[in-house]
Automatic annotation (TrEMBL), chain A:
GO terms for molecular function: guanyl-nucleotide exchange factor activity; SNARE binding. Residues 133-159 are annotated as: Disordered. Residues 279-420 form the VPS9 domain. It comes from Thecamonas trahens ATCC 50062. InterPro entries: UPF0507/Ank_repeat_27, VPS9, VPS9_dom_sf. GO terms for cellular component: early endosome; late endosome; plasma membrane; transport vesicle; tubular endosome. GO terms for biological process: early endosome to late endosome transport. Residues 136-159 have a biased composition (Gly residues). This is VPS9 domain-containing protein. Pfam families: VPS9.
Automatic annotation (TrEMBL), chain B:
This is Member Ras oncogene family RAB22A. Residues 180-194 have a biased composition (Low complexity). It comes from Thecamonas trahens ATCC 50062. Keywords: Nucleotide-binding. Residues 196-213 have a biased composition (Basic and acidic residues).
Length: 466, 213
């Protein structure tokens, strides 16, 4: 337990950014101060401070930050809710609020909040014993002094269970969810060791992402983060090297676990950039969905015997993409979706009928996507396709991603004919359909653009795989 | 947990089927999936099959064959270590239709092992339109091994995959394994990705099962 004066964020505000603090207090603006443990690795720079200075807006429960983002106070639930201008809507609990007075004895409020309004990785290491103490002056919660990187305050060691007991392959099935991987790695290596990567993740989250070159640079940065984490684990945790030497598969599973940890930690930042960068293609995909959405299977290019196939469950399945943090989680959703389609088809077809083939699958996936409520489909595909750092060899999952990739590319091409010039006036590759291809909304030229994007990633994939 | 385990299967070799619609790609995949000693570990209809070949995992990918989806097949070809290019021995057009698919293999691995497969061999005695010489010449031009096969009778289907396995992993991979019982023993090859088999007599014999050329 610590006082507000011990909080590294507050210390930075009142020292390095005293001009902002002085301005805010003079104007009677509120200041949101994230609790110490939520600042693990968080870079307290001017932008971060400005994001936490809350200026009054239209009502007493609405604020605009100094960098023009919107925050709403929900008094009933005791939370600040981030809105327009933030990368995600986040509901941040208020531990308490305290009234301070400026030099003119005018009051201004400080909200002590659970985590930063944006960024930070507090959810990884949240504990119950690092709350502020309102008033008083007990020792600091983490003893950190508010530098650029604050270390891993609040991360318990979590190591009551012998990590050696966990060196079995069973604890690393390759299809864990992101929270499970975090838990597994923390148990394996202790929270403090795993948490040592957090500053790097926070730095990644607080720096711009350059999406050029088909995200190659970003992939390299993230791969380097993973490599560094793996090296640290091998060096620091007894038995890992021996486990890898005795069972090569263990190394693969460890790599996938670290990959999930890293990609999950940067997901909010990264995926927002993917959505923004691929907005044009997404418009095409959504236009394609709009164009085909009203069509029944019997109107699509599938075999007549598949027309009555019930695919509602598959559409509900693919909607789970919205809840995934890592590419691996998304691949598992796609896998489940395609398997649901397969099961529906096999149930529907009579014995002895021609089995499901790739031509059928294309249209069935298109049909399912048209009936699911999933936005940013194109970004999801890019996320899965490009941000596979170690798990490229999981080719069964690769098949499912390719199937979705093909269907989304098809929708993008179909939608390419329907996007108006106002929507898409920067396109120089728009479609010149004719004949049969026009009937299907298909453009070979446009397809090659998409294919080329895919091919650009091949060289990098090969490098990653090796 | 079983589902999780299946999804975690690594694949040692990705094989893609390419060819025009109706040439019999799906039937060949089905025959391979259902008619080998090695167990089939996973399938998505005939669109994806995961099988083991002498301890190596083959992921066999069917691709959309319709003309207007052809460009999309490049998505399936990414990182492929082997490609099976299928034509119908009873349809002359289907052989040179494969020209359009060669570009797609640019996204496959360097040195992608190619096999040109003439399908529907069982119909050849009465309806052959693609001669062995023409097919062989085409195979040479694309640096591929040539085999004729029948999904209906099963003739040579296993050989396609045996030759691919040997061509990619080497003859030792087959002989060293105690698992499985291959239908035939392919010709040992060098470590290059192209295999040439000279067995004209077999190719010309309607009763002979070996029709590799």
């Amino acid at each position: 337990m610590g006082t507000i004066e011990d909080n590294p964020f507050y210390q930075e505000v009142t020292t390095r950014y005293a001009h902002l603090h002085g301005h805010a207090s003079a104007k009677g603006y509120a200041l949101a101060v994230p609790r110490a443990s939520s600042l693990a690795g968080y870079v307290v720079n001017e932008a971060a401070v400005m994001m936490h200075v809350l200026m009054p807006a239209a009502s007493e429960t609405e604020f605009i930050t100094m960098d023009r983002r919107h925050v709403t106070l929900d008094k009933e639930h005791g939370v600040l809710i981030t809105g327009r201008g933030f990368r995600e809507s986040r509901s941040v609990g208020i531990q308490f609020e305290e009234v301070f007075y400026n030099a003119d004895f005018q009051p201004f409020t400080i909200f002590c909040i659970e985590e930063p309004l944006e960024g930070g990785l507090s959810f990884l290491f949240a504990t119950d014993d690092d709350e502020f103490e309102s008033g008083g002056a007990s020792g600091g919660a983490d003893g950190s002094s508010g530098g650029e990187e604050t270390g891993c305050g609040g991360a318990g060691d979590g190591g009551s269970e012998s990590s050696r007991d966990l060196y079995t392959l069973d604890v690393f099935p390759i299809t864990h969810t992101y929270p499970e991987y975090v838990s597994l790695l923390t148990r394996l290596a202790s929270a403090s060791l795993v948490g040592s990567i957090v500053p790097a993740l926070c730095e990644f989250n607080q720096t711009p992402i350059n999406p050029q070159n088909n995200h190659a640079y970003t992939v390299r940065r993230l791969r380097a983060l993973c490599d560094a984490t793996l090296t640290e684990l091998e060096v620091s945790v007894d038995g890992i090297r021996e486990a890898i030497a005795s069972e090569p598969q263990y190394q693969v599973q460890l790599q996938v676990a670290v990959e999930s940890f890293v990609l999950g930690g940067v997901n909010t930042h990264l995926f927002a950039v993917l959505c923004q960068y691929h907005a044009r293609q997404e418009r095409r995909v959504q236009a394609g969905i709009a164009a085909l959405g009203a069509m029944g299977l019997d109107e699509m290019d599938v075999r007549p015997e598949l027309a009555g196939c019930e695919l509602g469950e598959a559409s509900r399945m693919v909607e789970l993409l919205r809840e995934c943090r890592t590419p691996l989680e998304k691949k598992m959703v796609v896998r489940a979706t395609l398997q649901t389609i397969t099961l529906a088809v096999e149930t529907h077809l009579e014995a002895g009928a021609e089995p499901l083939n790739a031509d059928d699958m294309l249209w069935l996936v298109v049909y399912v996507l048209c009936r699911a409520e999933v936005s940013h489909l194109y970004a999801h595909v890019v996320h899965m396709r490009e941000f596979t750092l170690y798990s490229a060899s999981l080719q069964e999952l690769a098949y499912y991603v390719a199937s979705l990739d093909v269907a989304v590319a098809f929708l993008a091409q179909r939608g390419g004919t329907n996007v108006t010039s106002d929507d898409d006036d920067d396109d120089d590759d728009d479609v010149d359909d004719g004949g049969v291809e026009a009937a299907a909304g298909w453009s070979a030229a446009g397809a090659h653009e998409l294919v080329n994007q895919s091919q650009e990633a091949v060289a990098r994939d090969a490098a990653v795989t090796t | 947990m079983a589902a999780a385990a299946a999804a975690s299967k690594h694949v040692d070799l990705k094989i893609v089927f390419l060819g025009a619609s109706g040439v019999g790609k799906t039937s060949l995949v089905q025959r391979y999936a259902n008619d080998t000693f090695e167990p089939t570990q996973s399938t998505i209809g005939a669109a994806f099959t995961l099988k083991t070949w002498h301890g190596r995992r083959f992921g066999v990918w069917d691709t959309a064959g319709q003309e207007r989806y052809k460009s999309l097949s490049a998505f399936y070809c990414r990182g492929a270590g082997a490609a099976i290019l299928v034509y119908d021995v009873t349809k002359a057009d289907s052989l040179h239709a494969l020209d359009a698919y060669m570009d797609l293999l640019a996204s496959a691995k360097d040195g992608c092992f190619k096999v040109l497969v003439g399908s529907k061999l069982d119909l050849a005695p009465d309806a052959r339109e693609v001669t062995l010489d023409a097919a062989r010449e085409y195979a040479t031009s694309i640096d591929a091994l040539h085999i004729e096969a029948s999904a209906k009778t099963g003739d040579n289907v296993m050989d396609i995959f045996n030759h691919i396995g040997v061509g990619v992993f080497g003859f030792d991979a087959m002989t060293a394994s105690a698992n499985g019982s291959p239908a035939s023993t392919p010709t040992p090859t060098a470590s290059t990705s192209t295999v040439r088999l000279d067995d004209d007599s077999a190719a010309k014999s309607g009763s002979d099962k070996k029709k590799c050329c």
